[in-house]
Amino acid sequence: MHNRLDLRRRDRQTCLQPVAVMWCDSNGPDKFANVAALDVSEHGLGLQTPEPLPDRARVVLRAPRLGLHGEALVRHCSRRGTQYLVGLEFGRNMRWRPVSEPGS
Fold first, then answer.
1. pTM above 0.85, yes or no
2. CATH top class, domain 13-90
3. Neighbour-count burial of 65, counting CB atoms closer than 10 A to its CB (0-12 exposed, 13-18 middle, 19+ buried)
4. 3-class DSSP state for residue 64?
């Protein structure tokens, strides 16, 4: 069942994979974090981070187990307890493709 406020164009699949991210905060220095991916779709990724990422910030991400490496844009960031839920939209040159099951 879809949340009526869910405006995603593509369904996301749950995944719990490590992701390395880099971004610039409002003070200018590059920031790095190893975070957890929560879900993934062809065009985006949901992350859980220990600190907020600025809206519309460009991030560089690397998630080898998901076959992802490139730039993405922060589409939303909201606090959830002591963590933040961040939604990323992949740049033009990055797409996620699910691994096909043998025999399908």
1. no
2. mainly beta
3. exposed
4. helix
